[in-house]
Amino acid sequence: MYLVTTALQELWLENTPMWLLTPGCVPKPDSESRHKWDINGIAPDPFDSAEEITKSYEEIYKIQEQLIETLTVRLNKIHKSSHAEKFWRVHIGPWCLSYVTVIYDRHKRLTTATSNMPGITVIGCVSSTIIPNVNPAGFNEDATDDFYNAQLYTFLCKKLDIPIVERVVTIGKLNPERNKYYFSSKTNQFLRSIAILAIDFITLPLARRAEIILDASLLPRWFEIALTALSWGNIVAIQPKKKSISLSIEVIKDHAARSVLSVAPESCDQITSLIFEMVGICIPRIFVEGYQDLCSTSETIYKNLTPEVIYSTNSWWFNEPFKNWAARCSEQGSKLIGGEHAGAPFLNSYKMQEWSEISIVDYYLSWGWKGRNNFKVIKSPANKLVRFRNYRRKSTENRIMYVTTAEARHNILRLEDFSHTLNWQQRFFKNMPHEIVSEMLVRLHYHDFGWNIKSRLLRVAPKLKFDNWETNFIRRLHESKLCIFDYISTTFLEALSSNIPTVLFLDESIYPIDDEFFPFFQKFKNVHIFHDNPESAALWVQKVKDDPYEWWLSESCQEVVKSFCNDYAYSSKSPLKKWKLLLKSFIR
Predict the structure, then answer these.
(1) Dist. CA 276–CA 261, nearest whole Å
(2) Alpha carbon of 96 to those of 69, 283, 428: distances in Å?
(3) Rounded to an integer, what distance in angstroms lies between the CA atom of residue 81 and that of residue 73?
């Protein structure tokens, strides 16, 4: 019996019984060649309950912290420096979280499958030499790729002495076709580039004298300009600079340095030891061989910028020159401020991404939530929701918008099985009458990750219409009389902030809900905003679809929406004044 670890079908065996490691290995629903495969089923999921997920997130967090602490010492040794842990945490913290989660996930899935199916052989690839990425963004992208994961699983099998048979993969098929992005036309992109150059010409001289610099604030551009004017130039927003740092693959690998980074601590368990041993293979080159190039590039981009406060939302993840500049400024006394930017950081019990961001900065601006009494977290008017405040116009369109998301087939920063969400989507549409389906517009995530979600939904509801991403979400939102969500993220909060009738369904048994947020789930249930299964959500949509505002504008429903937005999607009658006072409060 054989075990398949990815959807890379060149590694599959025709007319041979096989098991799939994860639902992400399933071939395309409309694949003409599906009859060739003898698939027995899917291996057991090691994260099949909230309890297991919670326990695993605890372990990941612990290993990640140990890794950052250890790499601080080793990177200082390699680069002959003496930076504090915070300096290196800014650089490597987000990558460490991604890396630890990826290796932990792959290890658990392999060991669970092989222990439950004795005698099974894993199908691996001959090309198992893993080339380190240039930067963390490259690592995250490759971690979603079938070939890269085939390499990872092959390497892990050899380390864990798991039986394996290796097959050859054709070089020309290693890079899958990437999805197209439809955010704006080429003309608009060109005009935007010209506008950015013009704004830079004006703002960069101001930034050299500013006390507070914003980078990727996610505030509307007019709001940033107003902040600059209101503060007499003390608060200046600069455009994010992501200048690429090119490194030659042939000449860069420093085997000695990577060996230093790969030493496992004494007396640690198998998975921790494995994660440490693989650091030298996986750590991005920009932190080892390309570090001096990174420093030089950062100093060039941010020359003469030494503010007292640096605020950013998501540049802490993949903007390497920014991170280097911010870390250097922090050692000189600048305060680093982070902020909520997307998703639902108040939802899950283990807010891994938010905890990583909070650990990097001195203070963190939330959209209203406090988070386990963390002194770093400060309530602020939500940056991305400024434009939505007090929207009350009823839509004249007879449209129901269904908004969904997508997660990678190979997990990066999460452990939950996304195929469960796909099953719930199909259950929802199976329970929706055809005449209502014809009124619906499905807005998919712009990246499908190879799930073929559109094809899956069309098999259940052939009359479904799909948005093409050429129209922005705000416009689509305000054209809808009712919005339906199968997950909680930024778009859900934007709908509530716009006071547009909203229905949500989500599986509480899969997602560990934070104790602080849990009471709102019950309030949402009581007023029929939240449903704990897709069938209930479908029935409620059928009930209110003719005039959803009759339900939505009821006193009980509006009270819950207002209370929720105050705590998790906070807006202000004077957001400009509040933002100015809040940012200036961080100055010594």
Answers:
(1) 8
(2) 11, 9, 37
(3) 9
Which string of b and e fits 434-450 if b means at least 16 CB within 10 Å?
eebbeebbbbbbebebb
Phi/psi at 196 (nearest 5 deg)?
Answer: -65, -40
Interaxial angle between packed helices 419-430 and 534-544, expressed in degrees from 0 to 180 and rounded to the nearest 10: 40
Residues in the chain: 588
Packed helices 453-460 and 419-430: angle between N→C axes, nearest 10 degrees:
30
Q: What pTM did the predictor assign?
A: 0.92
Within 10 angstroms of residue 70's Cβ, the number of other Cβ atoms is 16
Q: Residue type for 354, please?
A: E
> How far, in Å, are 86, 134, 230, 482 from residue 258 at the CA level?
22, 14, 50, 54
Read off the amino acid at residue 420. Answer: H
Dist CA 583 CA 231 (whole Å): 10
Q: Which long-range contacts (CB under 8 A, 24 or more apart) does 33-40 make?
A: 33/9, 37/12, 40/1
Residues 6+ apart with CB under 8 A from 312: 214, 215, 216, 217, 322, 326, 337, 338, 339
Looking at residue 348, the DSSP 8-state letter turns out to be: B
H/E run at residue 402: strand 400-403
CA–CA distance, 403 with 537 (Å, rounded to integer): 14
Torsion of CA 359, 364, 370, 375, to 10 degrees: 70
* Residue 574 region by backbone torsions, left for phi larger than 0, else alpha for psi between -120 and 50, else beta: beta
For 565, the token pair is: 């937005």
Sequential pLDDT tens for the chain (588 residues): 899 999 998 899 888 999 999 999 986 655 545 667 889 999 999 998 888 988 999 999 999 999 999 999 999 999 999 999 999 999 999 999 999 999 999 999 999 999 999 999 999 998 767 888 889 999 999 999 999 999 999 999 999 999 999 998 875 444 444 444 444 556 666 666 676 666 666 777 888 999 999 999 999 988 999 999 999 999 999 987 655 565 544 446 789 999 999 999 988 999 999 999 999 999 999 999 999 999 999 999 999 899 999 999 999 999 999 999 999 999 999 999 999 987 676 677 777 888 899 999 999 999 988 766 678 999 999 998 887 654 555 555 679 999 998 999 999 998 989 999 999 999 999 999 999 998 899 999 988 998 999 999 999 999 999 998 888 888 898 899 999 999 888 899 999 989 999 999 988 777 767 777 888 888 999 999 999 999 999 999 999 999 999 999 999 999 999 999 998 899 888 999 999 999 999 997
List the helix and strand counts (H, then E) for the chain: 24, 17
**Interatomic CA distance for residues 425 and 460, integer angstroms:** 10
